[in-house]
Structures are given as C-alpha cells and as structure tokens.
Amino acid sequence: MTERAPGQPSGYIRDHGVHPPLDSPGYRSTALRHPKRDLVLLPHMLTEVTAPLLGEDRVGESDNDLTRQHADEPLGQRIIVHGRVRDSDGRPVTHTLVEIWQANAAGRYRHVADNWPAPLDPNFTGVGRTMTDAQGRYRFVTIQPGAYPWRNHDNAWRPAHIHFSLFGRAFTQRLVTQMYFPGDPLFFQDPIWNSIPDPGARERLVARYDHDATEPEWALAYEWDIVLRGREATPFESEVDDE
Amino acid sequence: MRYETTPSQTVGPYLRIGLEWPDGPFAAAEGTPGGFWIRGTVRDGAGEPVTDALVETWQAAPDGRFDHPDDPRGAVSRPGFRGLGRCPTDASGEYRIHTVKPGPVPGPDGPQAPHIDVSVFARGMLHRVVTRIYFPEEEAANAADPVLSAIPADRRPTVVASRDGADYRFDIRLQGRDETVFFDI
C-alpha cells in the first residue's frame, strides 16, 4: 500500500528518446502506419500505473524450454538465454510474464505467412513463456535462430533475433522488443536495428555470450538484461516488491 | 544506480505465434453479467485494413478498482475479470474484446469518465501506440474528463466508441483522415 491520495499516483519516467521513431523511412512498412498528428500528453493516473499481474497459470510446463515441446528435439544450436528484468531505478521486476517467439535454426517461422524456401522443423514451434522470479530473473532454453530474408530493400536480411514481450507492473512499462546476438554481421543493413537513434541504446539489445552459464556438453549461453521504465518519484512505500 | 531503458522494436509480421492466446479477447469471461463485445477495424494511412496488428486493452473493474497493489484503495481480485484483453487483427483487420464497462477511476480533480487504455502493436510499428476508449452514453462524465478535455474538440470523437446493438464499435485509424488520437505516455 502506498500513502498517495487517490488519483495521485506517482508516474513513470518518459523515455521517448530511447525508442525508435514510428516514422522511420528506412523501414518501409512504417510509411502508412505512423501517426502524423501530435500525440496528446496523458498524465499517469491509476489506469496507467497498474497492469495485469498475471500468474503462473499463463505458463505451461515446457513453455520455458523451446527444445522440449515436441516428440523430438529441434535441430540447431541449443542455447540458454537468461537475464534479469529491472526498472530504471534498478529494482527487480518480479513475478512478471515474459513471452518470446522466434524463427527456427533455418530462419523460418512457424507462421502461415512465412513461406520463404527454408525448412520448417516439425519439432520446433518457436514460442516460449516464463515468469521472472523473486529477483526478477528469467531463463529460457531454445535454439539459436537463423537469419531470414525480407523484401524491405535489395538483398535485405534480418539479423538473428528473439522477440520479447513484457508487461511489467504498469501499463506504462509495457514493452515489446527484440534480442540480438553479439557480432552479427547483418546489423549494418538492418533498418529495424538502425531505427534506434542512439547507437549505445542499440547495443542494449545485444545479448552477451555467457560462458559461465553454459552447460558443458549440452548448451551454450547468452545473458540479456531488460530494463523497463522506472518511477518518476519514489513514493512513500511500505510494500515489499514481492506480494 | 540508474539503468538505461531497453528500446522497443516491432512485433514484426509473425506476432500471432507468440502473442495470441485462446482466451486473449476475454478481459471479462464469457457469460459475465453486463458483458459485451468491443469490435473494430485497424486501418493504415491508405485506409487499408491492417491484418497483422495486435490490440491490447487494460481497464478497471465495474467498481473502478484495479487488482493491483498500487491502487490506493487496495487490490481486489474478481473471478472472471482479468481487465486485460488481447486480440490480433484478422484477415479483414478486425479485432474483438469481450469485457464489461469499467467504473469511474479517480483522477486529479474527481473521477475520470469510464475508459479503457489501448495499445496497438503491428508490423511496421517500431513502438506501440496508445489510445483510450470512452463510452458514448457517458456524455456528462466525458465532458468533465481531464484527458478528453485536453484533446482538440474536433478530434475527440476518434476516442469515443459507438453503440452497435448491445455491443460497441471502436475503429482505429493509424494515420490520415480521422486519425485516432494517440497519447504520449
């Protein structure tokens, strides 16, 4: 429980400068899908500082291991992807749903509209879900996704990536993003990666190879931390992060 | 210690495999007393339906409260009411959310009009856009609402749903003529 008067919650820090502009001509699909009128300022009130606090019921037994959702294992390099979810004040975002989806090792998604000539893998759906723990940590087991071609520009290829979706604890914290892999040679020509204005901010989407987290004779590992927006002012709180 | 936030990226064209839930459209369970559908079409700047978008909604319960510790009145859980709706658009660009009418939520100077917060994600959108759904029968509350009042009068209709029998329609225009009002949050 906070000690704020009703209707006077503390808001969340606006971090617009970090995110790509909706109008990013290098990514052609943005042309007809970005608002042209000015945005209207929305003060953060109760609807904006709350969010669905979803529970373990959203997560099935093998949802955090994308290599164990079928009769056999998918082809590809088995990897562990783990990290922490924090807010910009460094507070762990605990017990929050993390959803991922990705292409298979050949760069093909199990989606009706993805029909480029790379094989589907009968043992790979490419969808995962997990909850962060009491320290804000998450962990998935999956396979290294492949790069895939698209028609945005001549000989366009997306760097290998995993899509991440998070709710956090407030509507303002909602984030959908992509995790990339270190040293990918395809960054230079990717308008989605390059749409992020600050080169330093782009690097925050790149996972770190984590040899300490590998499992010998079983899986390589990558560490990737996620930071959601923090509070504008720390309200007087007697609650603990963990309910 | 300050941490820099993680930038947004698009959901891309294949969001349905990761973000579609069988029960996603049900912010309120089927059969909930007072339940109704909100349906709408998402369109782009050429007026074409956007067939690969995701619409997400978040709202208070009918008594205006949230199942969340930051609600100063205390968190209250209600069976059958999740408050979150999530629906990808179909081949005609339409989404649908089954819900109940939210109650008034406290604002800075008294209650806000009943409203639903909406996020739209899509291929071709590097970050979500955010809007609100208001209800057409709430004329007095809408007239006094601080958020609606901050919107130029000629654009307010873009964030007010229309009646559709027992249900509502709320179309979303990402760009162009009758562009929906989107918020800086």
From TrEMBL, chain A:
Keywords of this entry: Dioxygenase, Oxidoreductase
Top-level taxon of origin: Bacteria
Broad class of enzyme this protein falls into: oxidoreductase
GO BP terms, alphabetized: 3,4-dihydroxybenzoate catabolic process
An annotated Gene Ontology molecular function: ferric iron binding
CDD domains the UniProt entry points to: 3_4-PCD_beta
Pfam families listed in its UniProt record: Dioxygenase_C, PCDO_beta_N
InterPro entries: Intradiol_dOase_C, Intradiol_dOase_core, Intradiol_RC_Dioxygenase, PCDO_beta_N, Protocat_dOase_b
Enzyme Commission numbers on file: 1.13.11.3
Keyword Metal-binding: no
PANTHER family assigned: DIOXYGENASE, PUTATIVE (AFU_ORTHOLOGUE AFUA_2G02910)-RELATED, INTRADIOL RING-CLEAVAGE DIOXYGENASES DOMAIN-CONTAINING PROTEIN
NCBIfam families per the UniProt record, alphabetical: protocat_beta (TIGR02422)
Family (UniProt): Belongs to the intradiol ring-cleavage dioxygenase family.
Identification of the protein by name: Protocatechuate 3,4-dioxygenase subunit beta
Species whose genome carries this gene: Thermobifida halotolerans
From TrEMBL, chain B:
Gene3D superfamilies linked to this entry: Aromatic compound dioxygenase
An annotated Gene Ontology molecular function: ferric iron binding
Domain Intradiol ring-cleavage dioxygenases as annotated: residue spans: 36-176
InterPro entries from the UniProt entry: Intradiol_dOase_C, Intradiol_dOase_core, Intradiol_RC_Dioxygenase, Protocat_dOase_a
SUPFAM superfamilies: Aromatic compound dioxygenase (SSF49482)
Domain of life: Bacteria
UniProt-annotated stretches for the region Disordered: 62-94
Enzyme class: oxidoreductase
Keyword Oxidoreductase applies: yes
Enzyme Commission no: 1.13.11.3
Chain intervals with Basic and acidic residues compositional bias: 64-73
UniProt keyword list: Dioxygenase, Oxidoreductase
Assigned protein family: Belongs to the intradiol ring-cleavage dioxygenase family.
Listed name of the protein: Protocatechuate 3,4-dioxygenase subunit alpha
Organism for this UniProt entry: Thermobifida halotolerans
